[in-house]
Design goal:
The complex is a heterodimer. Chain A is built from five helices and two strands. Chain A is α+β, with helices and mostly antiparallel strands. The relative contact order of chain A is 0.31. By secondary structure, chain B is mainly α. In chain B, 85% of the residues lie in helices and 0% in strands. The radius of gyration of chain B is 20 Å and the shape is elongated. Classes of the chains: A alpha+beta, B mainly alpha. The interface between A and B is medium-sized, with 19 and 15 residues.
Chain lengths: 83, 163
């Protein structure tokens, strides 16, 4: 019997939002969110999924709701399972 | 390279240097002939633990001083009118530690500890198979050192590839 597994990929619009916020730098966003520039860089590149708290703080820095900053894609893979 | 990566590189480098120093001392100074004397090995390991702790503290202090000087010089070159308070706050901003750093440290720690555990079990197995107690001590000690190095390397990997 085939088992469906769903992989959730977190996406973000941080680069676009930074552009529309007067080309806000990663350093500026990091300072507003209270984290390091390295963390913002990793979140923006999709290398790190932030905690809910940080996600809200990033959204707050742009002054938009969280769903305008973060979204998700569901990938469905079919895997062979045990009968 | 970010502050966290530089700090990790320093810690890995000091770990590698210490491990090489121990191996050289153990092989050249003590040699395999002294394997029967557990007391010598225990004393040597205690001394190396002390040296290791002192080395790490000194390296971290020197690293932070050099990094702060580097940031201050960079800021002064860019803007000569910048005041000391502004320089201080940029140094603090550079050295901020957040949730990603903590997560990376936790993940790397977990794997580092598993190295130590494997080393301890391997040491016990060696003892059970009839090896000398000094061999067991060396296996456990080297596993601890290796665990620290692996931990640092993993941290670097997580910073580069993502968590």
């Amino acid at each position: 019997m085939a088992v469906k597994t769903e992989k959730l990929e977190i996406t973000n619009n941080i680069r676009t939002l930074r552009f529309f916020a007067n080309e806000m730098t990663q350093q500026e966003l990091a300072e507003r969110a209270g984290v390091s520039r390295q963390t913002i860089l990793a979140v923006e590149a999709g290398k790190y999924s932030p905690s809910l708290e940080l996600a809200f703080r990033i959204a707050e820095a742009f002054g938009v709701p969280i769903n305008e900053v973060f979204g998700y894609n569901l990938h469905t893979d079919k895997e062979k399972g045990k009968p | 390279m970010s502050y966290q990566e530089k700090r990790t590189v320093m810690s890995v480098a000091s770990g590698v240097l210490l491990m090489i120093a121990y191996c050289v001392y153990a092989l050249v100074k003590l040699g395999l002939d002294s394997m029967g004397d557990v007391r010598i090995w225990a004393t040597t390991m205690l001394v190396f633990i002390g040296i290791g702790v002192a080395t790490i503290i000194v390296i971290q202090i020197v690293f932070h001083i050099l990094l702060s000087i580097g940031i201050a010089v960079k800021k002064k070159i860019r803007d000569e009118s910048i005041d000391d308070r502004e320089i201080e706050s940029s140094i603090e901003r550079e050295m901020v530690e957040d949730e990603m750093d903590q997560l990376i440290e936790l993940k790397a720690n977990k794997i580092g500890y598993s190295f130590v555990s494997v080393g301890f079990v391997a040491g016990l197995a060696a003892l059970a198979l009839g090896a000398l107690p000094a061999v067991m001590l060396n296996i456990v000690f080297l596993a601890c050192m290796l665990g620290t190095i692996v931990e640092g390397l993993l941290q670097l990997r997580y910073y580069r590839k993502g968590v």
